[in-house]
Amino acid sequence: MPYAVGLDTVGTDNPIVVEGIPVTGEYLEISWEDYTAAINCLVSGQHVCVVNGVFVLDYQLPPPGGQ
Question: What's the mean per-residue pLDDT of the chain?
Fold first, then answer.
């Protein structure tokens, strides 16, 4: 099964390794449909994120300064 963790990180390995470094954070197992949707979001410049145990497609980054 695929996994998502943090911001814009999806993969099929647990842990997910990016450039030789395991990604830390809250791992969430997602469906293949969510995995495919996440790849489509990332390719189109949108973001995906795991927030409080929920996988969010088209995650909106907070504005600079947190406002």
Answer: 92
The one-letter code for the residue type at 35 is: Y
Please state whether the peptide bond connecting residue 22 to the residue before it is cis, i.e. omega within 30 degrees of 0: no
Q: What distance in Å separates the CA atoms of residue 25 and residue 65, rounded to the nearest whole number? A: 23
By percentage, how much of the chain surpasses pLDDT 70?
97
Cα three-residue angle 61-63-65, rounded to 5 degrees: 130
Please report, as a single letter, which amino acid is at residue 67.
Answer: Q
| Bridge partners, residue 54, by sequence | 51
If 0-12 CB within 10 Å is exposed, 13-18 middle and 19+ buried, where does residue 57 land?
middle
d(CA 31, CA 21) in angstroms, rounded, equals 24
